[in-house]
Amino acid sequence: MSADEVPDRGEPCIRLRGIGKSFGGVSVLADIDLDIGTGEIHGLVGENGAGKSTLGKIIGGYYSAGAGSIEVFGETVGSWTPPLALERGIAMMHQELQLVPALSVAQNVFLGIEEERYGILRQTENVRLADVMATSGFALDPAAITSDLSIADQQKIEIMRALAREARVIVMDEPTSSLTADEAERLHETMLRLKETGTTIIYVSHFLDDILRVCDRVTVLRDGSLVRTADAADETKGSLVSAMLGGSRSETPYPAKVRSEFAGEKPVLWVDGLSAPTGVSDVSLEVRPGEIVGLMGLVGSGRTEIVRAIFGADSASSGEVRLNGIPYANRTPASSAERGMVMVPEDRRKQGLVMTVPVRANMTLPHLKHFTMAGGVIRAALERGRVQALIDYFRVVPARIDGDVTHYSGGNQQKVLLGKWLMRDPGMVILDEPSRGVDVGARQRIHEAIADLAQKGAGVLLISSEIEEVLGLAHRAYLVHEGTLVGEVDPDNATTQDVLWTLFHQDDPNIDTSRGSAP
Question: What is the superkingdom listed in this entry's lineage (predicted)?
């Protein structure tokens, strides 16, 4: 059966039988039987490491199954690759972006499916992109270079790439992890429109409310095994979490906020009048030992640019930074780390981890001189012991110090990244989207680690696009708009609605936003 001969709506377009997959001898999927109906939105949920992204990549042709069979549109497939999957009408958008940084938006969207005549490219990408943007509801400059765009805008490109291929089945792996609430809602509307045309969408997400709102059916995976598939209407957030984690557990609240015994001391980080060419303007803030301080703003507000200028990843044009009371000029990432200030970036694959080396090397790479004896000999036992302790602390799965990080789930990669920068117990930790793209189990462990940092006396500066996360973890929080701070809120006495109302009305001169709450 060709991709044009699609089964009737509701009939399976994909049948998986006995699917298994292992990486380096570690099983990540075992004996998966699953039918995906034509014209349905089918959710895949589970903890990070449960196998949901791996299963999606097997369907999309990016991984070959180690066991079992795949039937697509009524035909059993043998060799299975992304081009073959696309020929059969299956496209995939990845959680970890698969873009060419030097190409434009339009070039990335249509890469590999350019129009040509007599072997010559017709350069029609910009015109074709207008139709894709109309379908998706996104608006980007077709000529913009991808590397110059934010992570959120790059994720929109990834979504449009899948839409441009006019696939009959689209695997979406965490497509909303970097989108605003409004952008995510537009994507959901697009998914529902595609469903009405008979397109099947396999939706991998850790946002369970979204899964329940847009999916027809949902499949729960745990530890590489299929727990159950059920109608979304018959599930609740609590029932899904219980199935994902096992037993009768439900979603865990944020760790209790306890003021550290160090909180009354002088600021570990003090910033005054900081400005930078990246759009940072006259930023003044402080973080005390044992304090978690949040930066809250809309996507594109300049939160990341502020912390990059503080850390030294970007140069500053004016202002003063003091670390532990000592003026700190000429900042660089390397010198900041040596002074005990570290930063966990938002893009773990491009800015955080080296995907070609194992877990151990990723964690110890910035700290090698502290594991090295005279003559450059690595103290292997010390290195291995410290890495294993961090793996155990963060509950990394698989718990192998020489595991191949490329094959780890997004949440376990994030835990490795956190372990890398917490290796030497830093005094000041900057976290940019620390729980982006992770499930409730990994999220809970990361939140516990952040609370532990503060309890041990470290200062924490936290960025999250999820306002609830900042309110749930932070002792204090600053509001960010267009690269500057526009207010401060008490997380214990503010709501998400208060914060959003204030941020969305920053440009309205007729509204007093100083009180930080809606009327």
Answer: Bacteria
